[in-house]
Amino acid sequence: MKVNGTSFQTIWPDPEREGVVRIIDQRQLPHRFAIEDVCTVEGMATAIRDMHVRGAPLIGAAAAWGLALAAHAAATNAAANWYEILVRSAEELKATRPTAVNLAWAVDRILTAARACRSAGEARERLRAEARQICTEEVAACAAIGRHGLRLIQEISVRKNGSPVNVLTHCNAGWLACVDHGTATAPIYAAHDAGLAVHVWVDETRPRSQGAKLTAWELGMHGVPHTLVPDNAGGHLMQHGLVDLCLVGADRVTRRGDAANKIGTYLKALAAADNRLPFYVALPSSTIDWTLHDGVREIPIESRAEDEVRFVEGLCEDGVVRSVRVCPKETRAANYGFDVTPARLVTGLVTERGICPATEDGLQSLFPEHRAGGAGGRPRPTC
Ligand code: MRU
What we know:
CATH architecture of the largest domain: 3-Layer(aba) Sandwich
Shape: globular
CATH class of the largest domain: Alpha Beta
CATH superfamily of the largest domain: Translation initiation factor eif-2b, domain 2
Helix content: 25-40%
Strand content: 15-25%
Order of helices and strands: EEEEEHHHHHEHEHEHEEEHEEHHEEEEEH
Number of helices: 12
Bound molecules: 5-S-methyl-1-O-phosphono-5-thio-D-ribulose
Number of strands: 18
Strand order of the largest sheet: 8-7-6-9-12-17-18
Largest sheet: 7 strands, mixed
């Protein structure tokens, strides 16, 4: 996507310095667009844990590049125990953020590639290629989600005789959360680029304000009309006919279609159901955890620092970004990062292979290779 007219992805290897991976430091947005160099796997683990990079698909891509950096260092130091180093690094990366399954998915895929190597030098080349390939595939998946999801917006647009389609989204499931395009935003960008009138209600998404800081910024950069709303406004907007479609991302989706996403998503799904509004979850297949069934019971939910709730951060009149406490000094806070929307509240899942009902059969119609018993075959698009 473009930033002030220049195309960017969220993560890329420095073409001139082997052993350097570049990321957009999202902690500084929207006030400053800053690129950070990451040179070690430890640095990448910190970038993921402290949310320089965030969003499920991007966390996966970042972990893949982190392991490529570990392999680079092992080869440079001629480390005989290069494979053990990679396994240790993999564990460290997996522990950074527990909910987004893309992280473990990417780490396991890179380790599989490493196991096929006979030397640190070979692993350096192979892991770099694999990390690049993961990014290429994630970009293609998000572009396909955009093409499939566009249909949903087109249908509403026709019904409304071309009046703006109002989409409500939560958190940042945009290109900043992926390598490019976004998941929930991909159909929105596709609709906007196709000339459809679309307007986005952007949930501010406390406590880290990914909606206010990131979604608003990237929609603005792309010229998509949008309005920032407090997290609690969605139900009111829906009751008054101001929302046509809810479209959110996901951090982990179970084989039955339960979807973990940023805390507060479940409440939007409840309000959408009460108002008979379509509620879609957009995700690449790297977000599906085929080992889990019941999302509410089985998906691990990240608990983050209390101070993310107790403090808010913003740009002051003097141009300095500061953090201020919003509660009494002694007040304790709970900071669950995600919640799970049960499949029964999800109208459909928008994936790179098409749109399907949020059910085990629905997902398996698109991904037959994950049928229980392992029967493969070509995907059959549904709904
Ligand atoms: O805690 P974050 O900012 O990493 O959470 C991100 C989200 O919940 C996104 O909506 C989700 O990862 C979907 S990303 C395309």
